[in-house]
Design brief:
With 136 residues, the protein is an alpha+beta fold. It has four helices and seven strands; from the N terminus they run E-E-E-H-E-E-H-E-E-H-H.
Amino acid sequence: MIVKKGNKYAVVSKSGKQMGEYDSKAEATKRLKQIEYFKMKAKKKTASYKDGGKVTKEMVDKMDSKMRNEQNATATQLSKELKQGYKMVDGFPRPLTAAQKKDNKKELARTQEKLKKPTSYKYVVLRFLHIVKAVR
């Protein structure tokens, strides 16, 4: 909101924090509009996709969480197979060959590396859009 203080105009938040002081009411109004714009933008971080829908930040966060859970499950499974020395195939244990052990170790290292890295929202959005496209 805009409050007059002497011969100046101040932009003040609901909590009472002063966001700036201006000589004219027009300058204060302009600043207030900027603040409101960025507040709205922060709330609605969205990315459009082809069919006119919106991908919201919440959707991306949910997808990211799902992908991380899948990666974690994969890492757990690979680690378990390496520790036990066998893989369940059609309900029966099959011993891992040397090549399979080597591949499992590489895949486990890649998966653990992915889990350490921060999320690339661009990748998550692209993955989400790919899934949405496949469903349609």
